[in-house]
Amino acid sequence: MQSGRIESFVEESWGCATVYSVGSIVGTEETNDTARDTDLVATDPEVINTLSVLEPVEEVESIHDSPRKCSLNYFTSSLFATIMEDALTKIRILMECNNELRIIKTLTDMKTLLALKYSIKQTANTDELENIDPKNLACEEYKIIKLDSDRNYVAQTIIATYIDLCFNRSYVALEKSIKNILEHDEYRAALEEEEAKNKNLRRELNKQLRQQRNHIKAAVYESNMIIEKLKAQVEDSVLFTECRSRYTDKWQVARTEQHIQTIEETEVVSTEVLEYYKLRTDHEQRVHAEMELLINIILNETLERIEDWMRKYDEDMEKVDLKIRVKRTDFQNMRDKRLGLEKTFEDHDKVMKDWCTFKEIREQQRLYREKMNKSAIMVQAWWRGLLVRRKLGPFRVGKRGRKKKK
Prior knowledge:
Elements lengths: L4 E8 L2 E9 L12 E7 L2 H9 L2 H6 L12 H24 L1 H10 L1 H8 L22 H29 L3 H96 L4 H119 L16
Antiparallel strand pairs: 1-2, 2-3
Helix pairs in contact: 3-6, 4-6, 6-7
Protein backbone atom coordinates (compact mmCIF):
# COMPACT_ATOMS: atom_id res chain seq x y z
CA MET A 1 0.00 0.00 0.00
CA GLN A 2 1.42 3.36 -1.02
CA SER A 3 0.72 6.69 0.69
CA GLY A 4 -1.72 8.74 -1.40
CA ARG A 5 -1.99 12.45 -2.02
CA ILE A 6 -4.94 14.84 -1.58
CA GLU A 7 -7.35 14.85 -4.51
CA SER A 8 -10.25 17.02 -3.23
CA PHE A 9 -12.27 18.11 -0.18
CA VAL A 10 -15.79 16.81 0.60
CA GLU A 11 -18.31 18.53 2.86
CA GLU A 12 -21.64 16.81 3.64
CA SER A 13 -24.21 16.71 6.45
CA TRP A 14 -22.04 14.18 8.30
CA GLY A 15 -19.06 16.57 8.37
CA CYS A 16 -15.93 17.40 6.33
CA ALA A 17 -13.43 14.96 4.81
CA THR A 18 -10.39 14.87 2.56
CA VAL A 19 -10.21 12.51 -0.45
CA TYR A 20 -6.81 10.84 -0.84
CA SER A 21 -5.70 8.78 -3.85
CA VAL A 22 -4.20 5.39 -2.82
CA GLY A 23 -2.18 3.19 -5.21
CA SER A 24 -2.49 -0.62 -4.89
CA ILE A 25 -0.71 -3.38 -6.78
CA VAL A 26 -3.31 -5.70 -8.38
CA GLY A 27 -1.01 -8.37 -9.88
CA THR A 28 2.29 -9.11 -11.49
CA GLU A 29 0.92 -8.46 -14.97
CA GLU A 30 0.02 -4.80 -14.16
CA THR A 31 2.51 -2.06 -14.89
CA ASN A 32 3.47 0.96 -12.75
CA ASP A 33 0.24 2.75 -13.76
CA THR A 34 -1.83 0.85 -11.20
CA ALA A 35 -5.45 1.62 -10.48
CA ARG A 36 -6.03 4.20 -7.71
CA ASP A 37 -8.85 3.68 -5.29
CA THR A 38 -10.20 6.57 -3.20
CA ASP A 39 -10.66 6.49 0.54
CA LEU A 40 -12.40 9.16 2.63
CA VAL A 41 -10.40 10.22 5.62
CA ALA A 42 -12.08 12.63 8.06
CA THR A 43 -10.09 15.68 8.94
CA ASP A 44 -10.40 18.51 11.43
CA PRO A 45 -13.05 21.07 10.32
CA GLU A 46 -10.79 23.90 11.49
CA VAL A 47 -8.17 22.85 8.90
CA ILE A 48 -10.82 22.98 6.18
CA ASN A 49 -11.94 26.38 7.42
CA THR A 50 -8.35 27.57 7.46
CA LEU A 51 -7.92 26.40 3.87
CA SER A 52 -11.22 27.97 2.82
CA VAL A 53 -10.17 31.37 4.18
CA LEU A 54 -7.72 31.74 1.34
CA GLU A 55 -8.82 32.62 -2.17
CA PRO A 56 -5.94 31.11 -4.14
CA VAL A 57 -7.98 27.96 -4.88
CA GLU A 58 -9.44 29.76 -7.88
CA GLU A 59 -5.95 30.91 -8.81
CA VAL A 60 -4.66 27.34 -8.54
CA GLU A 61 -7.31 26.22 -11.05
CA SER A 62 -5.86 28.63 -13.58
CA ILE A 63 -2.30 27.41 -13.04
CA HIS A 64 -2.82 24.77 -15.74
CA ASP A 65 -2.18 27.51 -18.27
CA SER A 66 1.13 28.58 -16.63
CA PRO A 67 4.47 27.30 -17.98
CA ARG A 68 5.64 23.89 -16.84
CA LYS A 69 8.99 25.14 -15.58
CA CYS A 70 7.61 25.08 -11.98
CA SER A 71 6.23 21.52 -12.26
CA LEU A 72 7.53 18.70 -10.07
CA ASN A 73 7.21 14.92 -10.16
CA TYR A 74 4.78 13.07 -7.94
CA PHE A 75 7.33 12.04 -5.27
CA THR A 76 8.89 15.52 -4.90
CA SER A 77 5.52 17.28 -4.75
CA SER A 78 4.24 14.78 -2.15
CA LEU A 79 7.39 15.23 -0.06
CA PHE A 80 7.10 19.00 -0.13
CA ALA A 81 3.33 18.77 0.58
CA THR A 82 4.08 16.70 3.69
CA ILE A 83 6.59 19.31 4.84
CA MET A 84 3.97 22.00 4.18
CA GLU A 85 1.44 20.12 6.32
CA ASP A 86 3.85 20.15 9.28
CA ALA A 87 4.55 23.85 8.74
CA LEU A 88 0.82 24.61 8.53
CA THR A 89 0.18 22.73 11.77
CA LYS A 90 2.94 24.64 13.58
CA ILE A 91 1.75 27.98 12.21
CA ARG A 92 -1.82 27.19 13.20
CA ILE A 93 -0.68 26.27 16.74
CA LEU A 94 1.36 29.49 16.92
CA MET A 95 -1.57 31.65 15.72
CA GLU A 96 -4.35 29.95 17.70
CA CYS A 97 -2.57 29.36 21.02
CA ASN A 98 -1.17 32.86 21.53
CA ASN A 99 -4.17 34.12 23.51
CA GLU A 100 -2.48 37.31 24.67
CA LEU A 101 -1.70 38.44 21.12
CA ARG A 102 -5.22 37.56 19.96
CA ILE A 103 -6.75 39.62 22.80
CA ILE A 104 -4.50 42.60 22.03
CA LYS A 105 -5.31 42.31 18.30
CA THR A 106 -9.05 42.19 19.10
CA LEU A 107 -8.78 45.29 21.29
CA THR A 108 -6.84 47.06 18.53
CA ASP A 109 -9.47 46.20 15.90
CA MET A 110 -12.41 46.91 18.26
CA LYS A 111 -13.71 49.85 16.19
CA THR A 112 -13.68 47.85 12.97
CA LEU A 113 -15.28 44.82 14.64
CA LEU A 114 -18.06 46.95 16.13
CA ALA A 115 -18.66 48.55 12.74
CA LEU A 116 -18.92 45.11 11.12
CA LYS A 117 -21.20 43.88 13.90
CA TYR A 118 -23.69 46.69 13.39
CA SER A 119 -23.37 46.56 9.57
CA ILE A 120 -21.78 49.98 9.20
CA LYS A 121 -20.53 50.64 5.71
CA GLN A 122 -16.72 50.74 5.56
CA THR A 123 -14.71 53.00 3.29
CA ALA A 124 -12.63 51.31 0.63
CA ASN A 125 -8.96 51.39 1.68
CA THR A 126 -6.85 51.10 -1.46
CA ASP A 127 -3.49 51.90 0.13
CA GLU A 128 -2.19 50.15 3.25
CA LEU A 129 -0.07 53.24 4.11
CA GLU A 130 -3.06 55.63 4.07
CA ASN A 131 -3.92 55.41 7.80
CA ILE A 132 -0.32 55.26 9.05
CA ASP A 133 1.18 58.25 10.82
CA PRO A 134 4.87 58.56 9.79
CA LYS A 135 5.67 60.43 13.01
CA ASN A 136 4.38 57.60 15.21
CA LEU A 137 5.79 54.48 13.57
CA ALA A 138 6.98 52.97 16.87
CA CYS A 139 3.51 52.64 18.42
CA GLU A 140 2.33 49.24 19.66
CA GLU A 141 -0.74 49.15 17.40
CA TYR A 142 1.32 49.25 14.18
CA LYS A 143 3.64 46.50 15.47
CA ILE A 144 0.70 44.21 16.29
CA ILE A 145 -0.95 44.84 12.91
CA LYS A 146 2.38 44.20 11.13
CA LEU A 147 2.97 40.96 13.09
CA ASP A 148 -0.55 39.69 12.37
CA SER A 149 -0.32 40.65 8.69
CA ASP A 150 3.07 38.91 8.28
CA ARG A 151 1.80 35.75 9.95
CA ASN A 152 -1.36 35.69 7.82
CA TYR A 153 0.65 36.30 4.65
CA VAL A 154 3.07 33.47 5.43
CA ALA A 155 0.19 31.14 6.28
CA GLN A 156 -1.72 32.04 3.13
CA THR A 157 1.40 31.58 1.00
CA ILE A 158 2.11 28.14 2.51
CA ILE A 159 -1.55 27.10 2.09
CA ALA A 160 -1.61 28.24 -1.54
CA THR A 161 1.68 26.42 -2.22
CA TYR A 162 0.37 23.30 -0.44
CA ILE A 163 -2.81 23.26 -2.56
CA ASP A 164 -0.79 23.90 -5.70
CA LEU A 165 1.56 21.01 -4.88
CA CYS A 166 -1.35 18.66 -4.12
CA PHE A 167 -3.52 19.42 -7.15
CA ASN A 168 -1.03 20.47 -9.84
CA ARG A 169 2.41 19.30 -8.59
CA SER A 170 3.87 22.80 -9.03
CA TYR A 171 4.90 25.79 -6.93
CA VAL A 172 3.54 28.64 -9.08
CA ALA A 173 1.71 30.12 -6.07
CA LEU A 174 5.01 30.38 -4.14
CA GLU A 175 6.67 32.06 -7.11
CA LYS A 176 3.80 34.55 -7.36
CA SER A 177 4.08 35.34 -3.65
CA ILE A 178 7.82 35.96 -3.98
CA LYS A 179 7.23 38.23 -6.99
CA ASN A 180 4.56 40.09 -5.02
CA ILE A 181 7.02 40.65 -2.12
CA LEU A 182 9.68 41.95 -4.52
CA GLU A 183 7.16 44.30 -6.16
CA HIS A 184 6.14 45.61 -2.73
CA ASP A 185 9.79 46.23 -1.82
CA GLU A 186 10.32 48.16 -5.08
CA TYR A 187 7.14 50.15 -4.44
CA ARG A 188 8.26 51.08 -0.91
CA ALA A 189 11.71 52.08 -2.19
CA ALA A 190 10.03 54.32 -4.77
CA LEU A 191 7.89 55.82 -2.00
CA GLU A 192 10.98 56.57 0.11
CA GLU A 193 12.69 58.23 -2.84
CA GLU A 194 9.58 60.30 -3.60
CA GLU A 195 9.32 61.31 0.06
CA ALA A 196 12.95 62.50 0.05
CA LYS A 197 12.28 64.55 -3.09
CA ASN A 198 9.14 66.05 -1.53
CA LYS A 199 11.09 66.98 1.61
CA ASN A 200 13.74 68.80 -0.45
CA LEU A 201 11.02 70.56 -2.46
CA ARG A 202 9.21 71.60 0.71
CA ARG A 203 12.48 72.92 2.18
CA GLU A 204 13.13 75.00 -0.95
CA LEU A 205 9.56 76.34 -0.97
CA ASN A 206 9.82 77.31 2.71
CA LYS A 207 13.07 79.11 1.96
CA GLN A 208 11.47 81.04 -0.91
CA LEU A 209 8.48 81.85 1.28
CA ARG A 210 10.75 83.28 4.00
CA GLN A 211 12.66 85.35 1.46
CA GLN A 212 9.40 86.68 -0.02
CA ARG A 213 8.09 87.51 3.46
CA ASN A 214 11.29 89.39 4.35
CA HIS A 215 11.10 91.30 1.08
CA ILE A 216 7.49 92.28 1.74
CA LYS A 217 8.35 93.40 5.28
CA ALA A 218 11.21 95.57 3.98
CA ALA A 219 8.97 97.13 1.32
CA VAL A 220 6.23 97.85 3.87
CA TYR A 221 8.78 99.41 6.25
CA GLU A 222 10.15 101.67 3.50
CA SER A 223 6.62 102.71 2.47
CA ASN A 224 5.76 103.58 6.07
CA MET A 225 8.92 105.71 6.37
CA ILE A 226 8.05 107.62 3.18
CA ILE A 227 4.49 108.21 4.43
CA GLU A 228 5.77 109.55 7.76
CA LYS A 229 8.19 111.86 5.96
CA LEU A 230 5.41 113.22 3.73
CA LYS A 231 3.18 113.81 6.75
CA ALA A 232 5.95 115.83 8.45
CA GLN A 233 6.47 117.89 5.28
CA VAL A 234 2.73 118.66 5.04
CA GLU A 235 2.61 119.80 8.67
CA ASP A 236 5.69 122.04 8.15
CA SER A 237 4.21 123.57 5.00
CA VAL A 238 0.93 124.39 6.82
CA LEU A 239 2.81 126.18 9.63
CA PHE A 240 5.01 128.04 7.14
CA THR A 241 1.93 129.18 5.16
CA GLU A 242 0.20 130.46 8.29
CA CYS A 243 3.29 132.48 9.26
CA ARG A 244 3.59 134.03 5.79
CA SER A 245 -0.10 134.98 5.71
CA ARG A 246 0.11 136.60 9.14
CA TYR A 247 3.26 138.53 8.16
CA THR A 248 1.61 139.75 4.92
CA ASP A 249 -1.52 141.01 6.73
CA LYS A 250 0.52 142.93 9.30
CA TRP A 251 2.76 144.38 6.62
CA GLN A 252 -0.28 145.60 4.62
CA VAL A 253 -1.81 147.25 7.71
CA ALA A 254 1.44 149.03 8.59
CA ARG A 255 1.99 150.13 4.99
CA THR A 256 -1.57 151.53 4.80
CA GLU A 257 -1.13 153.48 8.03
CA GLN A 258 2.13 154.90 6.77
CA HIS A 259 0.50 156.17 3.58
CA ILE A 260 -2.42 157.70 5.47
CA GLN A 261 -0.07 159.50 7.84
CA THR A 262 1.96 160.89 5.00
CA ILE A 263 -1.18 162.18 3.24
CA GLU A 264 -2.48 163.83 6.37
CA GLU A 265 0.82 165.58 7.11
CA THR A 266 0.95 166.86 3.55
CA GLU A 267 -2.67 168.03 3.20
CA VAL A 268 -3.42 169.27 6.73
CA VAL A 269 -0.88 171.91 7.79
CA SER A 270 -3.07 174.40 9.57
CA THR A 271 -4.65 172.04 11.99
CA GLU A 272 -1.53 170.63 13.62
CA VAL A 273 -2.71 171.18 17.12
CA LEU A 274 -6.07 169.50 16.54
CA GLU A 275 -4.46 166.75 14.67
CA TYR A 276 -1.90 166.39 17.38
CA TYR A 277 -4.56 165.60 19.94
CA LYS A 278 -6.45 163.46 17.49
CA LEU A 279 -3.30 161.58 16.67
CA ARG A 280 -2.52 161.23 20.33
CA THR A 281 -5.95 159.78 20.99
CA ASP A 282 -5.59 157.60 17.95
CA HIS A 283 -2.16 156.49 19.10
CA GLU A 284 -3.45 155.59 22.52
CA GLN A 285 -6.29 153.57 21.02
CA ARG A 286 -3.88 151.93 18.63
CA VAL A 287 -1.44 151.11 21.41
CA HIS A 288 -4.32 149.74 23.42
CA ALA A 289 -5.46 147.65 20.46
CA GLU A 290 -1.93 146.44 19.82
CA MET A 291 -1.49 145.54 23.45
CA GLU A 292 -4.84 143.80 23.45
CA LEU A 293 -3.88 141.98 20.25
CA LEU A 294 -0.52 141.03 21.72
CA ILE A 295 -2.14 139.74 24.88
CA ASN A 296 -4.65 137.78 22.80
CA ILE A 297 -1.83 136.29 20.74
CA ILE A 298 0.03 135.31 23.93
CA LEU A 299 -3.16 133.79 25.35
CA ASN A 300 -3.82 131.86 22.14
CA GLU A 301 -0.27 130.55 22.06
CA THR A 302 -0.54 129.57 25.73
CA LEU A 303 -3.81 127.78 25.04
CA GLU A 304 -2.28 125.97 22.07
CA ARG A 305 0.63 124.87 24.23
CA ILE A 306 -1.78 123.67 26.91
CA GLU A 307 -3.71 121.68 24.29
CA ASP A 308 -0.46 120.18 22.99
CA TRP A 309 0.60 119.17 26.47
CA MET A 310 -2.83 117.73 27.17
CA ARG A 311 -2.67 115.75 23.93
CA LYS A 312 0.83 114.49 24.80
CA TYR A 313 -0.39 113.60 28.28
CA ASP A 314 -3.28 111.60 26.82
CA GLU A 315 -0.95 109.80 24.42
CA ASP A 316 1.53 109.01 27.20
CA MET A 317 -1.28 107.75 29.41
CA GLU A 318 -2.54 105.50 26.59
CA LYS A 319 0.98 104.11 26.09
CA VAL A 320 1.35 103.52 29.83
CA ASP A 321 -2.04 101.75 29.95
CA LEU A 322 -1.04 99.62 26.96
CA LYS A 323 2.25 98.65 28.63
CA ILE A 324 0.39 97.82 31.86
CA ARG A 325 -2.03 95.58 29.95
CA VAL A 326 0.87 93.87 28.13
CA LYS A 327 2.72 93.29 31.41
CA ARG A 328 -0.48 91.98 32.98
CA THR A 329 -1.00 89.59 30.06
CA ASP A 330 2.64 88.42 30.28
CA PHE A 331 2.22 87.89 34.01
CA GLN A 332 -0.93 85.84 33.48
CA ASN A 333 0.77 83.79 30.74
CA MET A 334 3.79 83.13 32.96
CA ARG A 335 1.52 82.12 35.83
CA ASP A 336 -0.48 79.75 33.58
CA LYS A 337 2.77 78.30 32.24
CA ARG A 338 4.10 77.80 35.77
CA LEU A 339 0.86 76.09 36.84
CA GLY A 340 1.01 73.87 33.74
CA LEU A 341 4.63 72.93 34.48
CA GLU A 342 3.73 72.12 38.09
CA LYS A 343 0.87 69.92 36.91
CA THR A 344 3.16 68.24 34.36
CA PHE A 345 5.77 67.65 37.06
CA GLU A 346 3.14 66.06 39.32
CA ASP A 347 1.89 63.86 36.45
CA HIS A 348 5.45 62.76 35.60
CA ASP A 349 6.16 62.01 39.26
CA LYS A 350 2.99 59.92 39.45
CA VAL A 351 3.85 58.07 36.23
CA MET A 352 7.38 57.32 37.49
CA LYS A 353 6.03 55.99 40.79
CA ASP A 354 3.46 53.85 38.96
CA TRP A 355 6.20 52.52 36.66
CA CYS A 356 8.44 51.61 39.62
CA THR A 357 5.50 49.84 41.30
CA PHE A 358 4.71 48.01 38.05
CA LYS A 359 8.35 46.84 37.70
CA GLU A 360 8.36 45.54 41.29
CA ILE A 361 5.07 43.66 40.77
CA ARG A 362 6.30 42.29 37.43
CA GLU A 363 9.56 41.07 39.03
CA GLN A 364 7.59 39.38 41.83
CA GLN A 365 5.33 37.69 39.30
CA ARG A 366 8.35 36.55 37.23
CA LEU A 367 10.03 35.07 40.32
CA TYR A 368 6.76 33.37 41.27
CA ARG A 369 6.33 31.87 37.77
CA GLU A 370 9.97 30.73 37.74
CA LYS A 371 9.57 29.11 41.14
CA MET A 372 6.31 27.37 40.15
CA ASN A 373 7.87 26.18 36.86
CA LYS A 374 10.84 24.65 38.68
CA SER A 375 8.50 23.02 41.21
CA ALA A 376 6.35 21.57 38.41
CA ILE A 377 9.45 20.20 36.66
CA MET A 378 10.67 18.60 39.88
CA VAL A 379 7.27 17.04 40.60
CA GLN A 380 6.95 15.80 37.01
CA ALA A 381 10.49 14.30 37.11
CA TRP A 382 9.74 12.62 40.43
CA TRP A 383 6.49 11.19 39.12
CA ARG A 384 8.07 9.93 35.90
CA GLY A 385 10.89 8.37 37.88
CA LEU A 386 8.37 6.70 40.17
CA LEU A 387 6.50 5.27 37.18
CA VAL A 388 9.75 4.00 35.65
CA ARG A 389 11.02 2.43 38.86
CA ARG A 390 7.73 0.70 39.65
CA LYS A 391 6.96 -0.09 36.02
CA LEU A 392 3.57 1.55 36.02
CA GLY A 393 1.48 3.17 33.32
CA PRO A 394 3.18 3.37 29.95
CA PHE A 395 6.32 1.77 31.42
CA ARG A 396 4.54 -1.43 32.45
CA VAL A 397 6.23 -4.62 31.21
CA GLY A 398 3.88 -6.46 28.84
CA LYS A 399 3.32 -10.19 28.95
CA ARG A 400 4.94 -12.24 26.24
CA GLY A 401 2.37 -13.98 24.13
CA ARG A 402 1.84 -15.28 20.68
CA LYS A 403 2.74 -13.08 17.79
CA LYS A 404 -0.25 -11.66 16.04
CA LYS A 405 -0.93 -12.95 12.61
CA LYS A 406 -0.46 -10.50 9.86
